[in-house]
Amino acid sequence: MSNQKYTLMKTKKIFIVLQFFCCLSFTSCQKFLDAKPDKKQVILSSLKDCQALLDDYRTMNASFPFDGEVSADNYYLLGSAWLALRDVKDRDTYIWSPMGEHFISQWLNPYKVIYNANLILETLDKLPKGQGQQKEWNEIKGAALFYRAYAFYQVAVLFAQPYKAETANRLPGIPIRLTPDLAFQSERGTLQQTYSQIIEDLKESLELLPTNQILPVRPSKAAAYAALARTYLTMEDYGKAGAMADECLKLKNALINYNDLNLNSAAPMKQFNEEVIFHSVALTATPLAISICKVDPDLMLSYVSPDLRKKAFFKLNTDNSYSFKGNYDGKANGILFNGLTTAEIYLIRAECNARAEDVAGAMRDLNTLMRNRWDKNITYIPFVALNALDALKQVLQERRKELVFRGLRLTDLRRLNSDPRFAISIARKLTIEGVEQTYSLPANDPRYTLLIPELVMQSTNMIQNPRP
Questions:
Q1: Largest CB tally within 10 Å, which of 105, 223, 358, 369?
Q2: pTM of the predicted protein model
C-alpha cells in the first residue's frame, strides 16, 4: 500500500471516530460520558495528522448554523410553501414560535469544530517541536485557535443573549469547552467569559498564522483580524472593531468590480474569489431554498438601478418576486456562504468611523465599496453625508444590502435594537386557506435568542434561555 493511500485511509478513520464521539457527547446517554472513550482510537500522532484534521472541509468550514438567517427579515414564504416544509422545526423558526425547537445540528456542528480544535491543541502540547517544524507547528496551533473562536462565535450569536458590557457578567453565555475530554461537564458560564475567550483565542492566533493563504479555506492573520472586527462589532465595541478592520485591510483589501461579472449567470460569484478572507458556509436551510424563498420587497426597492448588486444577487421570478442567487460559495443552492470578506470589513470600518463622527472616513470606505458595485455606463456620483448620523444611516443601509443572506442580519438586528433610532419590529404574514395570520417579533424580544435544542438540555444541567 502506498504512503499516500495509507495516509488517506488513516485520516478518514480519524474523522469517522471523532464524529462518532462528538455525537455521543451531546446525546442523553450519560453512560457514554461516564465511560470515557478509548483515546487510542482517536490519537493524532504527527503534525501531518493535525493538519489533515484541520483540512476536513465538511466539518471545519461547511457545517455552521443558519437558523439566524431563517429568523431574519430578508425574505418571506408563501403560505403554501410554509405548509410544505416537512419539519415543524423549520415552520416554528420561521414564525418565531416561542417554544419552537431547533435542529440539534445547529448546536452540535460548531461543537464538532471546537472538539477537533481542542484535540489538535492537546496533541500539539505533546508533540516535540522538531528542528525545521516550528513554523508548521505555529500555523497549526494558530489555525486551531482561530477555528475554536470562530465556532464559539457562531453559537454565541444565536444561543446567548446580545452582548452588553453592563450586563455581560450577569447573563449566561455558552459552554466554553477547552478540552477534548468528553466527560467534561458543559456549563454556560457568563456572556463575558464567552466573548473574552473568543477574543483571547483570536489574538493568540494572530501571532501564529501566516499573513494570507493561497486558498481562504485555511485561516490567516487577515482572517483573524477580520474575525476580531466582526466580534467587537457584535459587542458594540466600535473603537476596537474599527481598529481591527483597519489592520485587516492593510493585509487584504481587494474588491470585485461587479462590471466584470456575468450578471445573467445563475451563480455570478466565483468560489474563493478575491474578496474572500475566510471561506465558510452554513448547513442547508430548507426555508432559504431558492425555489421557495422570496426576497423582501422593501429590500428589493432599496437597490437603485445603477447598483449592479440587484442583478448580481437576485433573480426575477415569473410572479415578479425575487430569489437570491448571489452566493459567495459560487453555487446556486441553499448552502449559503457566511464567511469573512473584504466588503464586510470595509463596511465595519465605515460604521465605526461614522460612530466616531469621522464622516469623511466613513464615506471614503463606503464609496470605495460602491464604486465597485456601480454600472460603469452610468456616472458614479459619490455618496455624501450631512453629518455623522446621516453617514451611519447610509452605512447601515448598505450593510444590509451588501451582506444579504450571509447569516449576519439577525446579529445586526440584535445589536441595533438597543438603539431606539434603529430598533425595528419585524413581521411575517401567512395566508392559509384564505385566512391571513400575522406573526411579529418586536425589538428586543427574548426570541431574538434561540432556545438551546432540547436534546442538549436533556443531557446537561444548563439553564435554558428565557421566554416571555
A1: 223
A2: 0.92
